[in-house]
Specification:
Number of strands: 4
Order of helices and strands: EHEEHE
Oligomer: single chain
Helix content: 25-40%
Largest sheet: 4 strands, antiparallel
Shape: globular
Radius of gyration: 13 Å
Structural class: alpha+beta
Strand content: 25-35%
């Protein structure tokens, strides 16, 4: 275990990604995550619409190998103009 994280790698790590509802938003997020984590099966992606249906929250369960990998995923997702929030 590294000194700067409480996580033990490799581990399954849920990423929460929010954005405006669009037909291609889930595919966009999965593509950005796959740039760093390899293929993500559809069974590891959950989608939930906001009450009014204007926003979507995705939970992507990633098999993380390191803190630097998670940092890179967060950086790329956060920098994208269509992503409103990453938790």
């Amino acid at each position: 275990m590294s000194d700067d994280t409480l996580l033990e790698f490799p581990c399954d790590f849920p990423l929460k990604v929010m954005g405006r509802k669009a037909d291609d938003f889930a595919a966009l997020v999965v593509e950005l995550v796959e740039n760093h984590a390899g293929p993500i099966p559809a069974t590891r992606v959950r989608e939930r619409l906001s009450r009014d249906g204007n926003f979507v929250a995705l939970t992507v369960l990633v098999r993380a190998d390191s803190k630097s990998q998670l940092d890179a995923i967060y950086t790329e997702l956060s920098a994208h103009e269509r992503v409103l929030m990453v938790l």
